[in-house]
Amino acid sequence: MTASGQLPRRCWVEIDLAALERNLKLIRASLPAQIKFVAVVKADAYGHGLHHVAARLMHAGADLFAVANVAEAMALRELSSDWPVLLLSPVLPDEDRYLADYDLAATVSSAEEVRRFDAVGRKAGKPVAVHLKIDTGMGRLGVWHTQAPALYAQIQAAPGVKLAGVFTHFSSADEDPAFTAEQRRIFLHALDSFTGFNPAGLFIHADNSAGLETAPERSVFNAVRVGLLQFGILPHPHSLLARVHTEPVFSFHTRVGLVKQLPAGTGISYGRTFVLQRDTKVAILTAGYGDGIARAASNRAQVLLNGRRCPVLGRVTMDQTIVDITDVPGPVSSGDPVVLVGHQAGAEISITEFSDWSDTIPWETLCSVTKRVPRLYRTALGV
Ligand SMILES: Cc1ncc(COP(=O)(O)O)c(C=O)c1O
Questions:
Q1: Distance between alpha carbon 6 and the CA centroid of its chain, in Å?
Q2: What is the count of structural domains for the chain?
Q3: Residue 3 has what pLDDT?
């Protein structure tokens, strides 16, 4: 550990790995027994820390890891030389050789990619694994669905590539069940039109977290591809997935740096966007947008101190945030713990609520906690 690693914490994240493992088991238990679990761990496992999260998910038996790029896949290879890994983002031509070197599966959306990966597999003397992605209405990666049978045929005819999966991605699973049903229908129709298609041994996947909510035909897909829900976060506040009873893995903490009394009429922070209406006791917290409290949450966010909600006053600054603690029961002193996301003394601020205060979504909030914020891991095997 570095010298700074031993310093008292000013702002930190706690990651509950036992909750992560419980969540994976709960999600599995909510699905038919044969469904495989593709754990989406891109962007440093949604900011939770790829190494710790993937190690725990391996222990819990995830079937396949999905990451964005080669760098993330190489980090996984430090944990396991052969656990299946899928790259979700396009592979750049000068990255092709890493597919063979690190035994990675690539997402394929085009004839040009098949040709490139075929060449890599032939040269290596071992076919490159690919998941054929079908665009059923996301408008991002994937071959347009009407052209999918031709690309499937090209893959089958290429000795340097080996089909390992077929998948699609929903654009609006959390808000438009009718469109999601239509994407499912198009996906199935595309699979039906593949000449000689045999799904045995392949990963057939579509459902992200929100997709699980509206998956009537899910038994026809044999794998789910889950990010957010494994971290105990629902894709939207009224999600039916509450029935799965996952619990948050992530919590976000800071501390009181200074307590002081200010008279009514005082302007608070840069730009004086908040003016005190009463004599007010304020606490200056030791975290700001340099840690991951969005500036857009200025004058909107709340924090927990002694189990009481305290409003943020004025603009969030780089290293400090000011809150009103006038109504907090009991003494408040420099060093006291403050919860930004999580539980304290029976009160809770969810990551969804925290995200709403800056007009964003939990996915982005998790990716926005900066690298100066240490992640502390709770590892107990409490399953
Ligand atoms: C292609 C793909 N599949 C699956 C996921 C996981 O989605 P979620 O975190 O909503 O479960 C993502 C997330 O961004 C994705 O891009």
A1: 28
A2: 2
A3: 73
